[in-house]
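Tokens as discussed.
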């Protein structure tokens, strides 16, 4: 499956953005989908994930209550709605797909990756 992330940009602190990850090649419905991010000078880190049917989702603590991951399998797209953005959310955001049925947060468990989209939050 090929993944294409989009929707990043420059936003002021407190603002919102919605990232999209469009899949091609295979149906997105067979994959656990996730968002990771790489902040300047840091390693890539887990942000959120959602199971194949969308029934379950997980978030890293720093984004709980502010970010929402969702999916539309009919459109082969996963979203990350980001509200109340903070400067520390500045990063390149990547979407990833995992063909297993086990929920986890380690990037090594994900099989496919998008190219990343830059999110910059100004103070």
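Sequence:
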């Amino acid at each position: 499956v090929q993944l294409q992330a989009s929707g990043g940009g420059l936003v002021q602190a407190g603002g919102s953005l919605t990232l999209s990850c469009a899949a091609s090649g295979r149906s997105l419905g067979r994959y656990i989908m996730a968002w990771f991010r790489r902040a300047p000078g840091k390693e890539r880190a887990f942000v959120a994930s959602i199971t194949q049917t969308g029934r379950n989702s997980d978030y890293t603590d720093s984004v709980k209550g502010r970010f929402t991951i969702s999916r539309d399998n009919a459109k082969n797209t996963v979203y990350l709605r980001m509200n109340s953005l903070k400067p520390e959310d500045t990063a390149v955001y990547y979407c990833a797909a995992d063909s297993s049925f086990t929920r986890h947060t380690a990037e090594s468990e994900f099989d496919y990756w998008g190219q990343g989209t830059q999110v910059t939050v100004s103070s």
